[in-house]
Automatic annotation (TrEMBL):
Gene3D superfamilies: Aspartate Aminotransferase, domain 1, Type I PLP-dependent aspartate aminotransferase-like (Major domain). Keywords: Aminotransferase, Mitochondrion, Pyridoxal phosphate, Transferase, Transit peptide. This is Alanine--glyoxylate aminotransferase 2, mitochondrial. Multifunctional aminotransferase with a broad substrate specificity. Catalyzes the conversion of glyoxylate to glycine using alanine as the amino donor. Catalyzes metabolism of not L- but the D-isomer of D-beta-aminoisobutyric acid to generate 2-methyl-3-oxopropanoate and alanine. Catalyzes the transfer of the amino group from beta-alanine to pyruvate to yield L-alanine and 3-oxopropanoate. Can metabolize NG-monomethyl-L-arginine (NMMA), asymmetric NG,NG-dimethyl-L-arginine (ADMA) and symmetric NG,N'G-dimethyl-L-arginine (SDMA). It comes from Xyrichtys novacula (Pearly razorfish). Its EC number is 2.6.1.18, 2.6.1.40, 2.6.1.44. Its cofactor is pyridoxal 5'-phosphate.
Length: 493
């Protein structure tokens, strides 16, 4: 914990109505000095429109008691309609990868806007081809064939169909607690009840126990690939992982009881995002992939949240598990907030998928490809992956000190800037901190100027998946704010 920050930022400023003056941080606001803050319609009017004309469920899950009225963004910062600045550590749900309105990406987008917005991929336009070549150069052989979509749900939907056509099998396995999309097909993969409607979704989808080494029945202090391990005891010998054996045992039970002997696919996120960056034992994916392939299935890595350098050690999350998927799906960070998704697969699977004509009007539009291409360039030029590793590791190791200090912080985990902080009533029971308590801390953190996310099956985890350009100073500010929010909560109760 960097006490200097608390010393330098008076608490009335941490609890401020106005943004903390920039002099407290070694950052320059030059780039934003020309911004004008536009009030827009009054807040009450916006809420009225939200109630009357927007998806009513968004009213139920409007994140904060006092909602955030977002107006403008620049890199890791968001300003509300009153000009109040927030450090954005949730990035529009892990989506703004290289920073809000990143100047390089904005310039590339503006250039393409002046040239050609849209044509379909029935014509040969350079942006699509240049992008496909650039993207596949970042993937290992034989993952070389790209299908561009508009979202992650669409990408997973396509991957389901591909897996089924290629294998001639139907059944697909996912982890409990997973989110893979909201279309009627992908809702079958999603194993998280608040996101499941009481309607027929894709049949043939079965879930298996998520090998969550903190909350699950098994887990120790060496299981996961993270700078921070769980607080659980471990009696495994060097090179052994009892938790892995047990969770793989659960997968074998699923094979024995719940699916036919031949399956189509296993879908897994390298780190489960919606669950609050849930990590599995180190060799789980390796063994699971082998078991899936023995049953005729293909392995799909859902990189919608973990891709594009976010995990720090690698460009793709699956590489951290030392596995090679047959299909990789991606979205969110691929376009820094512009709607684009992708499925990348092998020529063999692509050939099996050529049985009909797959057409997507917007998938791979010149505009989307120009944005995504510039995102890839920016990740490379700005050392974004290395930044994830350095800053993310710093955040987690410092946050682990808070975990050791406070009984209600149960777990700190993740890789790079894919981070979860799981809150508990106490460390012995590991019972989830109730939603009201989570809500109080969450709101307080926002009121002190930092946006984070929430996740976990019981809403018990805070999610930190910021734009990948954040700095150590941002982390220091966040840690000071989070520490203060926990203290405030404990003082109140
Ligand atoms: C892991 C994962 N896969 C797929 C999706 C679906 O992506 P989209 O919302 O772009 O359809 C999400 C969205 O949150 C996700 O987190």
């Amino acid at each position: 914990m960097k006490e200097w920050l608390l010393a330098h930022v008076p608490f009335q400023l941490l609890n401020r109505k106005e943004p903390v003056p920039a002099k407290y941080f070694e950052i320059s606001l030059q780039d934003t000095s020309s911004y004008t803050f536009i009030q827009g319609p009054p807040k009450e009017r916006l809420m009225e429109i939200r109630r009357q004309n927007c998806n009513p469920v968004t009213m139920k899950i409007t994140y904060y008691k006092k909602p955030l009225f977002a107006h403008q963004g620049f890199m890791q910062w968001i300003w509300d309609v009153d000009g109040r600045r927030y450090l954005d550590l949730f990035a529009g749900v892990a989506t703004v990868s290289v920073g809000h309105c990143n100047p390089k990406v904005t310039a590339a987008t503006a250039e393409q806007l002046k040239t050609l917005w849209h044509t379909t991929n029935i014509y040969v336009h350079p942006t699509l081809h240049e992008y496909c070549e650039k993207l596949t150069s970042l993937l290992p052989d034989p993952l070389k064939v790209v299908y561009l979509t508009n979202s992650g749900s669409e990408a997973n939907d396509l991957a389901m169909l591909m897996a089924r056509l290629h294998t001639g099998n139907f059944d697909i396995i996912t982890f409990r607690g997973s989110y893979h999309g909201g279309t009627q097909q992908t809702m079958g993969l999603t194993s998280n009840s608040p996101y499941k409607y009481p309607a027929a979704t894709s049949s043939g989808c079965t879930n298996t126990m998520c090998p969550d080494v903190f909350r699950g029945p098994w887990g120790g202090s060496h299981c996961r690939d993270s700078p921070v391990q769980t607080i659980r005891d471990c009696s495994c010998a060097q090179g052994q992982c009892m938790a892995n054996e047990k969770y793989i045992g659960q997968l074998k039970e699923t094979f024995a009881t719940s699916v036919p002997s031949r399956i189509a696919a296993f879908f897994g996120e390298p780190i489960q995002g919606m669950g609050g960056a849930v990590q599995y034992p180190k060799n789980y994916f390796k063994e699971a992939y082998k078991l899936v392939r023995e049953r005729g299935g293909v392995c799909v890595a859902d990189e919608v949240q973990t891709g594009f350098g976010r995990t720090g050690t690698h460009f793709w999350g699956f590489q951290g598990h030392e596995v090679l998927p047959d299909i990789v799906t991606m979205a969110k960070g691929i376009g820094n907030g512009f709607p684009i998704g992708a499925v990348v697969t092998t020529p063999e699977i692509a050939a099996a998928f050529a049985k009909a004509y797959h057409f997507n009007t917007f998938g791979g539009s010149p505009l989307a490809c120009a944005v995504a291409s510039s995102v890839l360039d920016t990740i490379k030029e700005d050392g974004i992956q290395q930044n994830c590793l350095t800053v993310g590791t710093y955040l987690m190791t410092e946050m682990a000190k808070l975990r050791d200090k406070y009984e209600i912080i149960g777990d700190v985990r993740g890789k790079g800037l894919q981070i979860g902080v799981e809150m508990v009533t106490d460390k012995a029971s590991r019972d989830p901190l109730p939603p009201e308590a989570m809500g109080e801390i969450f709101e307080d953190v926002k009121d002190m100027g930092v946006l984070i996310g929430k996740g976990g099956l019981y809403g018990q985890a805070f999610r930190i998946q910021p734009p990948m350009c954040i700095t150590k100073q941002d982390v220091d500010f966040f840690l000071a704010v989070f520490n203060k929010a926990i203290q405030n909560y404990l003082n109140r109760h």
